[in-house]
Every structure is written in C-alpha cells, then in structure tokens.
Amino acid sequence: MPLSPLEHDRRHGELDQVMRAYVGQPADDTPDKPSAALTAYLRQTWHSRPWALATAERQLREYADHPPGRLRLRLGEFYAVPDVGLPEQDIQQWLYCLADHIKHSLEEGEVPPSAAPATHWEWHARFPETGQFLGGWFSQDMPDEFDDRDAAVEDYRISADPHLLARLVGELHELLALRLDESDYALAVAELGMEVDPPTPYSPSAWLVHVAGRLTDPQAEYGS
C-alpha cells in the first residue's frame, strides 16, 4: 500500500525537498562543486531551517544505500526520485554526491553567501506568501475576475487572514530590500506567479511598493 503522509515525511520528507529544488534545473553536481540547485537549497535551508540539513543528508544517504525495486515503486510503497535527467544507473552516486556536499557544508560551516534567489524553487521557498498572492490574484485570469489590479489587491486585503497579510507585507519589503535591477524584479514577479504586467506607469519594483502601501492601509477593518 502507498506510504502514509506521516511515513513519507518521516522517511523521505527532506529528501523530497532537495529533489524539488532541482525542478527545471540541471543535476550537474560534481564531487568538487554543487549545482546551482543544491546551492540554492543550502542557502535557503541554512537561512530558514538549518536543523533540516542533517535530516536531508541522512535521508539521501539511506535512500542511496537501499534503493527501491521496481515492484515497490509500482505499488507506491516507496518514494520515487523524480526524473532529473540522469541515467538510472547514475542516480545512486548522484545522491551520495549530494549527501557529501551537505555533510561538508555542515561540518565546515560553509554557507552559500547571501544573494537573491537563483532558482524557481528558491524564489518560492524564500517568498511563499508572495507566490500565493501573485499566483492566485495575478494569473492570466485576473482581468476577467477584477476591474483592475487595485481591485485584486483589495480583494486579497479584505479576505486574507491578518497573519498572512502581515507575512506578505514583510516579504514584499524583504524583496524590495534586495535592490535588484528592474529587469530582475520583472523576472522575480514572473517566477513568483504573476502573469500580467504592472499597471501603467509603474515599474515592477514601484508597483510592489504601491502594493505594500495598499496592504498596510490604516483604514483596513479586518473581521468587519
């Protein structure tokens, strides 16, 4: 029978997080250098959940030590490593390579330097509520659902839990604190799910400032 959610997380939860970091990224790790995907995972996890790194190293190594057979995978009784573009016979050594890089980072205290997110996974791991906001309220369907972009922002403001609203405002300020070029802010909001352009005459960063201001409107009356 398939793994229960509890058993999945206990045995493979952090392994799955590492694998998710490779979505859309090449698994080109070598013994001498981690890939961009693994570097992004290390940077974000050191910043937000450093205790999870040891779990990731253990789960990667245990999975490589005891890879599942085809029958168990077909029955759903084991975690299936997603396709990362490597030949099947190379997966085991690749998992050992990832575990070795994480172990080295932990033992030597080598933390990737602070930087703007470099991968799709890292953007969403670092700015999760911004991803929910932009992906949910500013998809390509937004013009059919709202009169304009301010109406979409207002809909989020009056419907979101106050704690999530505060988290989003904090994330927007953190995103603005990166002081990216406008082209990089355009890339950032696209990575985070925005499928419509900011309204004229706003640049992407200026629109984020505008949104943060509207979300912190002192006249907001939650729960009314």
Mean pLDDT: 91
The largest sheet, given as strand count, sense and whether it forms a barrel, is:
none
**Percentage beta strand:** under 5%
From N to C, what is the helix and strand string? HHHHHHHHHHHH
- Kindly name the structural category: mainly alpha
Distance between the termini: 47 Å
Number of helices: 12
- The best one-word shape is elongated
**What would you report as the Rg, rounded to the nearest angstrom?**
20 Å
**Which consecutive residue ranges, at least 5 long each, have pLDDT under 50?**
220-224
Overall domain count: 2
Strand tally is 0
Helix content: 55-70%
What characteristics describe this protein?
disordered C terminus; 2 domains; mainly alpha; elongated; 12 helices
Explain this structure to me?
The protein has 224 residues and is mainly α. The protein has helices at residues 5-20, 36-48, 52-65, 70-75, 91-108, 120-126, 128-137, 142-145, 149-159, 162-177, 182-191, 204-215. It has two domains: 5-108, no CATH class; 127-215, no CATH class. The chain is built from twelve helices and no strands. The model is unreliable at 220-224 (pLDDT under 50).
